[in-house]
Design goal:
The structure holds two protein chains of two kinds. Chain A is built from six helices and no strands. By secondary structure, chain A is an all-alpha fold. Classes of the chains: A mainly alpha, B mainly alpha. At the A-B interface, helix 1 and helix 3 of A face helix 2, helix 3, helix 6, helix 7 and helix 10 of B.
Chain lengths: 154, 180
Amino acid sequence: MIEHLSAEQISQWMVGDRTPQLEHHVERCAACRGELAQIESTISQFRTAMRDPANLTPAPEWREPAPSAAWLTWPRLALAATALAALLALPVSWRVRAHEQALREETARAAQADAQLLESVDAEISQAVPEPMQPLVTLATWNSSSVSQNQKAH
Amino acid sequence: MATAVASSRELDDFESVVRLYWPKVFRFALASLRDRFAAESLAQDCFLRAYRARDRFRGEASVATWLMQIAVNLVRDRARDRRWQFWKRARQTAVDATDAAVSIRDHGASPEESAAIKQQLQAVWEATSNLSERQKTVFLLRFVEDMDLLEIAAATGLKEGTVKIHLFRAVQAIRERMAK
């Protein structure tokens, strides 16, 4: 048997959590019944005061909003903005790609030219006598061969 | 199913919807925001949003619960708005407890009884202002709008158990304030 309802049990009752034990006590205890009645009465008066038409602003006259405003919703605006941004970004993207392609071709051409130059330098370096001096070599070879011929003749 | 269709059809005559539910929405906004201009503006916004979203209403809840759901969201957004917090402190149009209690003066109570009732109402009004936003919402929906726990859960997006906890704490706080 509960002596009197605690503060928590009173709140529990007000929320609607009414166990058989609480109901049994309230039935028999005038003091607790009185306390609950006072709280319920105050809340009921609060409700009445809040619901009194004198405290309310009357409903305004309803006018349907303009249809143009109805389709101009945030999701649609966001969608349109995204589409516009994509449209603007497309030519830029194409230009960037074309520029990159041209750059790649230019690099390939330069690499080819470099390779050819290196090959020709290698070829020149691999010769024992530089090309401009080749006639001297021929002359020297010719001279030495004629000397040997003379010696044989003698 | 038949109830859902009936609820959806109710929205066809939106003028009647506004007339019927305006007091409920306005009252909740007024008790939450405590400012008549702000409450009126919020209630109008609530009906405008409901009108624009009426095609998406499936009738799972009643029109009243659906409208309260929109109103609860708007109040929550407003409560988080820092500019609103600033203007709320600065403005002088806020409603006080005597405004809410004014209508009970002539209901047959003696001056002494009337003064006592007014004092109690003042205590409830002040206590609700100190509640957290959720506790206040749940308390107003339960004890001013007479909504049951399931309807409150639908309007607030909270679980029924959570609604009960907020309500319990709100009642505790109000009882403590009334006892002072």
